[in-house]
Structures are given as C-alpha cells and as structure tokens.
Amino acid sequence: MSRHFQDRARGQNKRARTRGVLIDSGLEIFGQKGIINSRLDDITKFAGMSNATFYNHFKDKDDLVSAVATSIALELVAAVEEQVVDIKDPAIRLVVSTNTVMRTALQHERWSYVLATAFFLVPEGLIDVGGYLKNNVDRGMAQGVFNTASDEFQLNQLASVFISGLRGLKKDNLSIIDRTSENLLRLLGVTPAKASTILDEAKAFYH
Amino acid sequence: MSRHFQDRARGQNKRARTRGVLIDSGLEIFGQKGIINSRLDDITKFAGMSNATFYNHFKDKDDLVSAVATSIALELVAAVEEQVVDIKDPAIRLVVSTNTVMRTALQHERWSYVLATAFFLVPEGLIDVGGYLKNNVDRGMAQGVFNTASDEFQLNQLASVFISGLRGLKKDNLSIIDRTSENLLRLLGVTPAKASTILDEAKAFYH
Amino acid sequence: MSRHFQDRARGQNKRARTRGVLIDSGLEIFGQKGIINSRLDDITKFAGMSNATFYNHFKDKDDLVSAVATSIALELVAAVEEQVVDIKDPAIRLVVSTNTVMRTALQHERWSYVLATAFFLVPEGLIDVGGYLKNNVDRGMAQGVFNTASDEFQLNQLASVFISGLRGLKKDNLSIIDRTSENLLRLLGVTPAKASTILDEAKAFYH
Amino acid sequence: MSRHFQDRARGQNKRARTRGVLIDSGLEIFGQKGIINSRLDDITKFAGMSNATFYNHFKDKDDLVSAVATSIALELVAAVEEQVVDIKDPAIRLVVSTNTVMRTALQHERWSYVLATAFFLVPEGLIDVGGYLKNNVDRGMAQGVFNTASDEFQLNQLASVFISGLRGLKKDNLSIIDRTSENLLRLLGVTPAKASTILDEAKAFYH
DNA sequence: GATGAATGAGTATTCATTCAT
DNA sequence: AATGAATGAATACTCATTCAT
C-alpha cells in the first residue's frame, strides 16, 4: 500500500496527517474493491481509526471520492507543469503531458484505475483539467497546428480517449502511452504522418 | 414512456410479453434515475406488477441491466445491418453505421444514456458489437482505407469515442453524429481532409 | 431415490399415484436438505410437476410433512404387527418391534432421519404409535415383567430413547439396534442382567 | 421478563451490558414464540433498540441462539460445579447434578424450553456439557457403580433422556426431577432397586 | 481530535400460496 | 387433474451517518 498522501502531509499538523491517511486508505480500498463497492467501514478499518473520525475530516463518502481524485489530479498537474513549462509547441506539449501523466500514474498503483473511474462517476470533479486542455487546444488552433473544434463536445471526445488510454495502461506495455498520444493528435486534426513525426520529436523532451 | 420491447413481444406468449414490459420499465427507470440509483421497487411498481414477479423473469438487478442493454444493442445492430448490407467501402459503412445507430437511438428516449452507462458498468455485455467493429476495421486496413492497429486497445479507444458521442447526442444537435464519425475516421488513420470528403460521400447512402 | 410410495399406489387412480410421487419427493428432499430448509419448489421440481399441482393434493407444506411421516409410520406399524402377532411376552415384543422398525427403516434411505425430525417438529402426528407403546407397557406391568410408570412422561422418555436410537442408526453398525432395545428395557425397570437375557431370547423370533 | 444476563453484565462496559440485554430478550422471545418463529424485529423491539444494533453484537440470528444457549449452559454448569465439588460417588453426583440443573432452570422461566430446543437445533453448541457427562460416566464405570458403554451413542441416549425430562419439567410437578434421575441411573446400568436407594441417599446432599 | 456505540432508513430477495386457463 | 404465471407478505441484513463522552 502506498503512503503517498500521508507522506505529503509529513510535518503538517495532525489534522492534515490524518486526512492524508484517509486519502491513502480510500485510494487503496477504491482500488481493491471499486469505488461503488467500497464501504466506509473498510476504509476506516484500513486506516486504523474509528468510523466516526472520518466525519471529522470529510462531509461524506462522495467527499472522499472527490478528495482522492482531486489529490491525484493535482499531483499530476504539478508534475506536468514542471515538465512542459519550457515547451512552446502545443503538439509537443500534449505528447509530453500525456507521457508525464501516464508515467507518473504508473508509479502509483491504483492511480489510473481510480482516476478513470472517478471521471465517470463525478466528471465535474475534474473540470480544471478540462480548462488546461482547452487552453492548449486553443493555442494549437491559433498556431495552425491543430484542426478541430474546441467546444465541450470535442473536449469530451479527447478526454474519453485519454481516460480510455489510462484504463488500458500497464507497466509492461508502455507503448500504450504513445498510442494514446497519437490518437489524441489525430483527433486534433493532425494527419497520421505528421502525428508520427511529432511523437518522435517529442522524445527529445523527456528521457 | 416507450413500449418498444413489449410491442416486440406482441403475439408471443405471456411470459415473453411480461418480460418485454419489465425491459421497457427498466429502461424508463434507469433513464430517469440512473442505473445505480434505480430500485427494483421503482421498476416493478412502474411495470404495474408485483416485486416477486420480477424474479420469475430475471435472476437479479444486474440481469435486467444486461437484458436491457442487450435488447437495445440487438435492435441497433439489426437496424445497422439493414442499412449497410450493400455498402462495400468500410469508411462509408462506418459513417452510415454511426448514423443509423445514433438516429435510431434518438428515436427512443433513454437509449443513448442507458447504453452508454451500461457500457461502463457491464462492458462485457456488449462484446458482440466489438466483433462487428473489429471486422469492419480489419476490412478497411486490408483495402488500405484505414491506417491503424486493430487490437483490443485501439478498439477500446474507438468505442470510447463512440460512446462519448452517444452521451453527447441531443435531438436538437444532430451535428454530433457527423462529428463523431469524423473523429472515428481520424482515429482510424484517415486524414482530416479525406475524412471530410467521406462524410459527404456517405450522405448518398441515407436520406 | 426411492419410489416406494408411488409403487404402493400402483394400480390405483391417477390421484393416488400423483400423491405417491409427491410423498416420495418430499421424503427425498426432506432427507437431502432437512425439513425446515426444504422448499416447495424443490419438491415439485423434483416431482416433475407444477408447483400448483401440489395444492390439488395437500393443504399446505405441513400437510405434506405429516403425510410423509404418517406414511412411513404406517408402513412400520404394519411390518411390526406382522412380526409380533404371535408373541405374548411384552419384553420380547418390545425387542422384536424395535428390531423390525429399525431394520425396515434401514432398508429405506431417509426414513430414520425424516421420522426422527418429524417427531421433533410435529410430535402430535405420531400419537398412534404412542398408544401402541403404552398398551405394550401396561401389559408388561400387569405381567410383572416391567417395573415403571406408564404415564405420558415416561412414554416420552421411552420415545426419546427410541428416536435418539433411530437417529444414530447406520447400516454398518447394527449393534445400535440391540443397544437401543437394551436401554428401553432398562428404562422399563428390567435389571441389566435380565435385559441381556431377554435380548438373547428375542433372537429366536427373527432371523 | 427476566433480566438475568444483563444483571450479570452490571458493572461491565456498555458493550457487555447491551449484549446482556439482547440475550435476555432473545431468551424471552424464543420462549414466547419458539426459536424458529422468532423474528429479529421482535427481539430488538423487545430489547428496546434498533435492529441494526443487533448486528453490532451478533453475526446473525443463529449466533444469538448459540449465545443464549451457551449462556444458560454456563450458568447451569457453574451452579452444578458448586454443588458437587465435594461429592465423590458418581451416582450421587449425577442425581445432585440433575437436581441442581433442573431446579435452577425452574427458577428461570424459559430456560428449560430454550435449552431443550437449542439442543435439537444446534447440538454442537453444547458439546462441553457432553464432556462433563462422559467424565462422570467413566468415573462411575471405573468404580463399578455403572454398567454401560460410554461412547457417543450412549451419551446421546443419556442426553435425550435428560433433555426430554427438561422439556417435561413443570413447577408444580417436581417429581419429574427424581424420575429423570432414576431413568438416567437405569440407563447407566444401575438396577431399579439400587437406583431407588441412591435417590434417597442423594437427598442428604441438597435441601 | 478521536471514538465506542447506536441507529434510521433502506432494499434485495424468498417462498408459500392463489388463480385463470 | 394439471399448470403457467403472478403475487402478498415477510424478513434478514447493510451501511452511511450521528452523538455523547
């Protein structure tokens, strides 16, 4: 089991630390049993604390689901931002972003699954990510690199492909990452030939 | 409320007719409250029959979910097959198929939503459709029309786009249909320009 | 599975034959699952007939339980009467009766178990047997062979020992039969030494 | 209604006290309606607590049945041990034990009935008592007081007689106690004459 | 801040029994 | 006499949530 989020809270006050434990526990149990089939009892027992303590930290179960998904998403966004800060080309940015998210998710068991499921159950929870995506798409359009609409429908199509890629992600099949990026580029109106080139170029931006 | 499936059972024995009523009712309630939040009581009350009768026809709630999704899928497949029987070109077939499915779904309130949700909850239930899809993709590859892998991963990517399109479908925004087809073609390796042409050509095959 | 009671009805009208099938089926299922855990559905499915047909023959489930127990009891009584008709000595009668009942029960899988369980659940159903027993005890008292009360309490004590013996009965351990008889004789006030002798004498009256 | 077991838990923590209330309530309702016909709702309503609370203390209904039977059995065993601690003669011990158990049971409405019924439904629950019995029988054999086997079959015969006696027990007919003891002695191979003597001798050991 | 204990409100499922044909 | 189909009534068990300490 990962102690990622309680580690993140190390040095903070007790409240934050307990919260971290609960998020780690939720993540673990959601991953084991599926979000819908996870019971609060399972989570607090796993966390080693009373059922009632949970309610000192979260409004209800859904609140925990959001917190878990958000926590993961924030980490991923941070990781992405660090990687793409110097990249101007929107297509390269997209590829590097996908790469960063997926590789980071891979380092943490459960992340992909929980994120993908949460996206289905509480799509609103991840709107911020949508903003980031739209931004990047619009920039690509402005630069003539992309050829697509950037309305809600198309963003949903893109998100679906990304999430579906995340679901299919496995440690022993990293090619999924590039294939997802390639599909995203195609959706964005890049020709197959050009998309292939971009994938190669992007390699320069990560090891 | 639609009586589609009880109408389909007209002339058959009482057992089949009652089953039809239950499927219609499940569809209706699933559509109203969401599959997860639908209670058997709601469904049987809506169906105008005893709670116990349900269990003469279905093993449990999941069994009904599958039956509903399968019933819809079978209707759609039948409608598609009728439309594409004479079409050789896989790209055109794909566009016409998408068109047929979505227009048929639109004629029946709830179909898109229930199908899309069921696809998430019980993906195995819709495997047959996957076979049909793969078949078409392979044919397109053989003819040099498509340029893509046709393994499970890619089929899932395609399905995600299709389902996401289905979810976004609205009676007052039929452009969604073509846009979904266009995205599918792009994923299949058709260039944006060519995809646009194909969409136009396909118009000849449906009114 | 035994067809004993439908065989008994051979040659009689259809009503009697169907009834026989239901009794055999009840016996079988009661034996398999225990009387309390047997469902009507199990029984009628096993009998190969509709659930509703059952109610053409029996008032309710308890009625079947009684019918099964009574049917068995009647067979046993008949077998016993045939064996003891010429035996005057009440002690010998008792031993031969026990022997006959238990050996007959052994020939029919399920009989011992169902009889013993039914005795617990519907003790009233087997009152007749009680009458027979009391009669024999009183005769033994009159002849000075037994030394005991013959009121309801004592008859219950005797019945408990008999039923407990029936429960412990196994094909591969026939000694249970004599040991039960011996205990019954002891309860009836026969000294252990005398009881032992009686058991030997009784051997002359059955093969 | 008796508060015996909640009184036993007086001074312990709340958990133990609530458990005591539930055992008392189970005992009461089992006694009123029979174990099989008792519903959890009846029991928790009688206990004045929520249905759900029950499940904080017991796994399911059977668990309560066992707990009730075991609680009674433990009390009886304790009472017996106190009475017989100084008695060496196994025959006297047996009589005094029977006497103690039955008189104690009589002081608590429902005890006899529930114990007897539970013995039929969950015989395994009372195995310990069996151990105590076997022990005493073996000792009697060694001292030449008893003349019987002490295998499982015979212990079951003895238990049946005891339980049957318990079932027949009434406040206004205490003779049942001695008659049960007498039957047990007879089963154990004591001659009727000697058994009668022992019963008299035993009177010295209880008031 | 943490928790032991309690609970309201739900909810799927079972099964004996009935009735129209 | 037999049955396909339907159902009333029950009931055990679950789980998120609350509250006194």
What this model shows, in words?
Four copies of one chain form a homotetramer. Chain A has 207 residues and is mostly helical. Chain A folds into two domains: 4-58, Arc Repressor Mutant, subunit A; 74-205, Tetracycline Repressor, domain 2 (Orthogonal Bundle), CATH 1.10.357.10. Helices cover 72% and strands 0% of the residues of chain A. Chain A has eleven helices and no strands. Chain A has helices spanning 4-8, 14-33, 40-47, 51-57, 61-84, 90-107, 111-121, 127-142, 152-168, 175-187, 192-202. In chain A, helix 2 (14-33) crosses helix 3, helix 5 crosses helix 7 (111-121) and helix 6 (90-107) runs antiparallel to helix 8 (127-142). The longest helix of chain A is centred in the middle third of the chain and has 24 residues, at 61-84. The mean pLDDT of chain A is 93. Chains A and B meet through helix 9 and helix 10 of A and helix 9 and helix 10 of B. Chain B binds a DNA duplex (21 and 21 nucleotides) through helix 2 and helix 4.
